[in-house]
Amino acid sequence: MSAAETILEVEALRKYFPVRNVWKRRIGWLRVLDDVSFSVRRGEILGIVGESGCGKSTLGKTLMGIHTASAGRVIFEGHDIAQLKPHQSRRFREHLQYCYQDPGASLDPRWTIRSSLHEPLVVHTTLPEPEREARVREILRAVGLPETHLDLYPHEISGGQQRRVGLARILTLKPSVVILDEPTSGLDVSVQATILNLLLSLREQFGLTYLFISHDLSVVRMICQRVAVMYLGRVVEIGDTEAIFSAPRHPYTQSLLAAIPRIGGPRVTDSFALEGEPPSPTALPSGCRFRTRCPKAQKRCADEDPVLRADWERQEAACHFAT
Amino acid sequence: MRRVLRKLAEDRAAMLGLALIVLLVLAAIFAPWLSTHPGDVAEFHTARRLSPPGPENWLGTDRMGSDIYSRLLFGARITITIAVTAITIAVIIGVPIGLVAGYYEGLGSDLLMRVSDIFLAVPQIVLAIAIAQTLGPSIENVILALSATYWPFWARLVYAETRSIKNEPFVEAAIALGCSPLRVMVLHILPSISSSIIVRTTIGMGGTILTAATLGFLGLGPPPPTPEWGRTIAESREFLPMAWWYAAFPGLAIFMVVMGFNLLGDGLRDVLDPRLRRAGQHGK
Lengths: 323, 284
Known about the structure:
The complex is a heterodimer. By secondary structure, chain A is an alpha/beta fold. Helix content of chain A is about 30%, strand content about 25%.
């Protein structure tokens, strides 16, 4: 397993949602993903961070085909799957799975845990019942649940256990890449730690690659090898976690990191550079989309849209003035 | 499921409704044994015509001297046949249309819903009269007229429920997992909306029986001497108010059956309605 092997390649991925008026006439586009490009290496945890509404979740769902991409390519295990619906690309996507923010909510409330865990295998494989059952039991042990839970319904087990079942459901197919959409949001810190440890041990056990979508920078810093920072539907900075956290190049990343409160550190409000709300994705500013809130903005930023520059070792940023 | 039944059993009105429906079904099944004059469906005894309720004819006789009690029992069979068949056909047409139109988005599903809107825009009874009139009076045509006018109710209901449930994470997750649209619709969406369909079907049963009786009353139902309840009331008009029993007992039968289905439907809705159920779960 070479360190640099690319397992998932995203090229100029776009997802535009039409904005319609009351007569259903299209009056514009909501540009949620606008030329997103990055690649994921086998075995790594790539963090995707950004404010709410920057397109993190849409990115995850577009990769999965829940939303169909407007343009661009998603190359997974040698196949372009960007334009395919999940059931059309079933063969290719078997090893790419999406984990909901609350995996428990992804369980059909009217199905027993057993049926829910069998379903991925029924859909994707032709394994006979006994072999499916064996696989299900194996995975259930891996996520730390007793087999007695198989005959229960989702509402009969606790929220934390539901999350484990949700994870187990994804893992039955032995995926190679799992997209985790905010796996720790809305959890107590202690439960967060349990889930993170579980995710890490599952990664060891099954050789998984994670795409870790989160807005929690401290968690991202703790578990991700690389980080992509998104702003209004575009990756503005990507690189090794350490490089980005120690020397952020893009002014947006800089303000984002300044916003992490530290015990004994300066008050966040004193140093917080980011003001106001991001502009609406229906009416993006010309040139650099961050310029309306950027402390370094100059005339050039309004004219030219900066591209990702690989000017630093293990780090790329999309800013004209980043040094 | 057991919890639902227990809650339903506590609902007195629903239980009364269920009792009335069971009564109807028993009457229909055992009509030949329960009736005092089983032959009177076709036979008549002009000597006893229009006799008031008494020991010989419990609910009186009609203009042909046939026993009204016996004819009512056999009429229950016709009522059940018409209602059950018409509703089954309406459900079989309406539910898949609603599911497909609700699951997919686009011109096709808009078209399906506009067609069902057109059906809904015309008053049910008028459309049913038109169809039954065109095709001629018979049980089959009543069933056809009723199912042709009732399916849009299920299509509408299922469409709306599918639209809302399609955004639930568990449905989206099933899609993301690679389940085929058919699998998602039949195995995930349909079971989740089945309770709404059951409630609508129960209440719809009452409405269908009423419409069927109306068609019979207007002479568009099965032809004589079929002991259809609506037709019996229509026949009685000439002899009112003198032969009050002639209209009163078939009317009472229709009333009790329709009320039975409505009470049971209301009870089922209280127990099964997703919103009410969710509120109940938070409480416990």
